[in-house]
Amino acid sequence: MMRTPDMPGLAILKYRAADYQVVRSGRFVICAVSGVEIPLGELAYWSEARQEAYRSAIEATKALAG
After folding, report:
1. Is 57 helix (H, G, I), strand (E, B) or coil?
2. Mapping DSSP to helix (H, G, I), strand (E, B) and coil, where does residue 63 land?
3. Considering the entire predicted model, what is its pTM?
4. Bridge partners (DSSP) listed for residue 53
């Protein structure tokens, strides 16, 4: 399912090395690998260089290995 930036509840973040900046408030972001919603309270993996969020270390490893 394709997610659009105007999806209700979708946060827009600017990912930095050790944290992120909220550009637009929301409840979740989308995993760049699996496409699942990640509640902001559970967000622990992302790439500053790619500006992508990942659901877990497994998805982060897949994204960064490819």
Report:
1. helix
2. helix
3. 0.89
4. 31, 46
Q: For residues 18 and 27, give the distance between their C-alpha atoms in angstroms, rounded to a whole number.
A: 20
> Cα dist. 56→6, 23, 36, 38, 44 in Å?
24, 22, 11, 10, 7
Residue type (1 letter), 4: T
The tokens describing 39, both together, are: 């509640």
Question: Residue 2 is which amino acid?
Answer: M
Distance (Å, whole) CA 7 – CA 3: 7
- What was the pLDDT predicted at 1? 46
CA dist 58 → 3, 18, 62 (Å) = 21, 19, 6
Quote the CA–CA distance of 38 and 46 in Å, as a whole number: 11
